[in-house]
Design a protein that fits this description.
The complex is a heterodimer of chains A (about 240) and B (about 400). Chain A has about 240 residues and is an alpha/beta fold. In chain A, helix 3 crosses helix 4 and helix 4 crosses helix 5. The two termini of chain A are about 25 Å apart. Chain A has a single domain, classed as 3-Layer(aba) Sandwich (Rossmann fold). In chain A, strands 6-7-8-3-9-10 form a six-stranded mixed sheet, with helices on both faces. Chain A has a four-stranded antiparallel sheet with strand order 2-1-4-5, with helices on one face. Chain B has about 400 residues and is α+β, with helices and mostly antiparallel strands. Chain B has two domains: about 180 residues, no CATH class; about 180 residues, no CATH class. Chain B is built from 13 helices and ten strands. A six-stranded mixed β-barrel of chain B has the order 2-3-8-5-7-6. The chains are: A alpha/beta (about 240), B alpha+beta (about 400).
Chain lengths: ~240, ~400
């Protein structure tokens, strides 16, 4: 039996925005494979194409050419609907700006992915509360984002990302708005989820300190993968 | 899932309570207007039909000239009827319960210091039967009065009130123009006016007296015929037409220079007119419903823009286009249905007050309420679809970046 396919695989992915002379190539042929259970930090200067790459991996965008394989299946050209289903069942997102629904309790925010899975309320509540317990916020279930600190909000967002038990968590600068102490809490949480639950994590970050939590660091420069190496600090 | 969506919609509406209520105001007014118009119109139709029926049962009016068609049509001048025509009809047409020759004109009635412009009608005792009218006091004409053309008058309730006030008019004398006449009876009040005419504003004198002393001719303006209950009015109408055609020498195929009007037809015609008016008013009101829909579309578009990020988040965590579409569509429909409910209640209230004010019966029509309510829902679907579609088509990347 051959080894299981990587959970994420990009083959010669090119992404072009605009057309004609105004066309901008954000990705100029990216090859990247991420196996199950990896914790990968994606780094690179602004405009290096890392965000575009994350959007494609997150099924929010499609490559102009090249292939995007998810667990061995080519999903790069799936229609909008199918990509929404992939997000619904396999992916969890953590954003820099938390992106929680305002004036909606932490519990309901965490429940949101389950609502779209059509899960009955009772089961939904139970699972959302468990997810909140995982991030240490079960006491705060009834509070709205406005009543929570930045670190707490990001933990709610992580609870939302894991509540549907995704295969992959995509984190886009999850500590970008937090101070060092808060950042470390978040990173410990993510690292724990990766270690204990085997959730694959792909994280964009600017900070070397945060990248050190990952076991592998991929650097983008000018729309290409510039370096891809095991994290010396962790390996 | 649908329950979730509905709860979500209600929450979004409550969150912006002020804006939501202003948004649905258009729908509220539209629905209320439709219901008020249609309910009042229905009541008015019934009131008018009832009043016309009150003019007399199974009544046929025979008049010279062709039936007036449409507004402003020139009435052709035609020879009036004579007493002989009346006699011929009475003699030859079967199925008549009563028949009264009528001639009338407007005159000044004077009593003591008071005068009053009224309508003087020359006829005989059959008139009271034909019009199902009873005397409140006094007596009908005697045969002698009818034959001799004595100036005896029977007055309507309005004339009595205007000329005699509280005093007893019976046996008193009054003047019609220059003619003195003796009051021998007072008619029972008919009550409501029809088409703005006061039926009680009348003085009745013997036909012979009217012809000789007032009109100065032998003309009969109208022949009022009351048909027996067991006889179809159509048949009587046809017989009268046949006899009069012969007597007035209308050739076959030639249009007759008289017409026979069936009160039932008038009821139908007038009811038809008021119903058309009702429909028209209802249609105008329905336009305001559409305007209300545009208001909802407007606010939903604003709402979609405001909540772009929310939509992005929902799309990112696995909402499908149709989930977002449904969410905003349900919100728009819920809004407009809330407006519909408020409109139905307001409309019924306004119709109730209006009916009392106008003196027409309050006839709420549950079907109209239901239709207006459902139509408000339809408005929500139609005008909510575009904003909802716009929301569903948002690109999640852009939506998430939206500030």
């Amino acid at each position: 039996m051959s080894a299981p396919p990587p959970v994420i695989e990009l083959r010669g992915v090119i992404k072009t925005y605009g057309a004609g002379t105004a066309a901008v190539q954000a990705l100029r042929g990216v090859d990247l494979a991420i196996a199950h259970g990896e914790f990968v930090a994606v780094m690179g200067p602004s405009g290096s194409g890392k965000s575009t790459c994350m959007n494609i991996v997150g099924c929010l965008d499609v490559p102009t050419s090249g292939a995007f394989l998810f667990e061995g299946a080519d999903v790069g050209r799936l229609p909008r609907r199918q990509r929404a289903l992939l997000r619904r069942y396999y992916l969890g997102f953590v954003f820099q700006g938390y992106n929680l629904l305002g004036r909606t309790s932490a519990l309901e925010n965490v429940e949101l992915p389950l609502v779209y899975r059509g899960m009955p309320p009772r089961e939904r509540h139970a699972r959302a509360l468990r997810a909140l317990a995982t991030v240490g916020l079960e006491e705060w279930a009834r509070h709205t984002p406005g009543e929570l600190s930045g670190g707490q909000q990001q933990r709610v967002a992580i609870a939302r990302a894991i509540v549907a038990e995704p295969t992959v968590i995509l984190a886009d600068e999850p500590t970008g708005n937090l101070d060092t102490a808060r950042s470390r809490e978040i990173m410990d949480l993510l690292a724990g989820l990766n270690r204990d639950r085997g959730i694959t994590i792909v994280m964009v970050t600017h900070e070397n300190d945060m990248a050190d939590y990952a076991r592998r660091v991929v650097r983008f420069v000018d729309g290409r993968v510039d370096s891809d190496a095991a994290n010396p600090g962790r390996a | 899932m649908f329950r979730e969506t509905l709860l979500l919609a209600l929450r979004a509406i409550r969150r912006n309570a002020m804006r939501s209520s202003l948004t649905i105001l258009g729908i509220v007014i539209g629905v209320a207007a439709v219901i008020t118009m249609v309910t009042l119109g229905g009541g008015a139709t019934q009131a008018v039909a009832q009043q016309i029926r009150g003019l007399g049962a199974n009544l046929l009016n025979v008049r010279p000239g062709q039936q007036p068609r449409g507004p402003g049509g020139a009435r052709q001048v035609a020879k009036a009827f004579e007493a002989k025509d009346v006699e011929a009809i009475e003699r030859e047409v079967p199925g008549i319960a009563a028949l009264a020759p009528v001639a009338a004109r407007a005159m000044l009635a004077i009593h003591a210091e008071t005068n009053w412009q009224t309508s003087v009608t020359g006829t005989d005792n059959a008139y009271f039967q034909v019009r199902t009218w009873t005397l409140a006091a006094g007596r009908e004409f005697t045969d002698a009065e009818l034959r001799s053309g004595a100036m005896a008058c029977i007055i309507g309730a309005t004339v009595r009130r205007k000329l005699f006030g509280a005093s007893d008019p019976l046996g008193g004398s009054m003047r019609l123009g220059a003619l003195a006449c003796q009051v021998i009876g007072v008619l029972a009040a008919k009550g409501q006016a029809t088409f703005g005419m006061d039926q009680d504003d009348i003085v009745v004198v013997p036909l012979r007296a009217f012809q000789r002393r007032i009109a100065g001719n032998q003309n009969v303006d109208t022949i009022m015929v009351s048909v027996r209950d067991d006889v179809p009015t159509r048949r009587v109408q046809a017989s009268i037409e046949q006899i009069l055609r012969e007597r007035r020498r209308a050739g076959a195929g030639e249009e007759a220079d008289f017409h026979v009007m069936d009160m039932q037809q008038i009821v139908a015609a007038v009811s038809g007119t008021t119903e058309t008016m009702t429909l028209l008013l209802g249609a105008v009101a329905a336009v305001s419903l559409l305007v209300g829909g545009i208001g909802i579309m407007n606010i939903m578009l604003v709402s979609v823009t405001e909540r772009t990020r929310e939509i992005g988040i929902r799309l990112a965590v696995g909402a499908m286009e149709e989930d977002v579409l449904l969410q905003f569509l349900v919100e728009a429909v819920t809004l407009s249905l809330l407006g519909g409910i408020a409109g139905v209640l307001l409309g019924l209230g306004a119709a109730f007050a209006g009916a009392a004010l106008l003196g027409v019966p309050f006839l709420p029509n549950p079907w109209i309420a239901l239709v207006a309510f459902l139509f408000s829902g339809l408005v929500g679907v139609v005008f909510g679809y575009f904003p909802a579609h716009k929301a569903a088509q948002l690109n999640p990347i852009d939506a998430l970046r939206h500030e």
